[in-house]
Amino acid sequence: MTTADATAQAARAPCGLLTVDHKGTIVPVNDRFAQWLGISAPEVVGTPLAQHFTKASRIVFETSIVPLLTLKGQVEGASLDLVTRDGVKVPVLLSAERGGRRPRR
Prior knowledge:
The protein contains 4 helices and 4 strands; from the N terminus they run H-E-E-H-H-H-E-E. The protein has 105 residues and is of the alpha+beta class.
């Protein structure tokens, strides 16, 4: 499979896929994730991931998920709510893995 094939498959995946940089800004995002938010993928790129959560989920994300990623390097199955452009809550299960350097044990 070529890189182009893998990118095309990710864009059409039945789950939301995205990457955030070290500042929490969304870099690439697939169409499914953008569809959940009710906006286009190019509109999502460059926005902070945290702004797409409900207030309660943003607090959980910033106080629990980010520290776990920093310490353990991954999080699996965290239940959070996204919020669409129209203010509708979309429940999601978040799994994430930190790229780059791994924390020392």
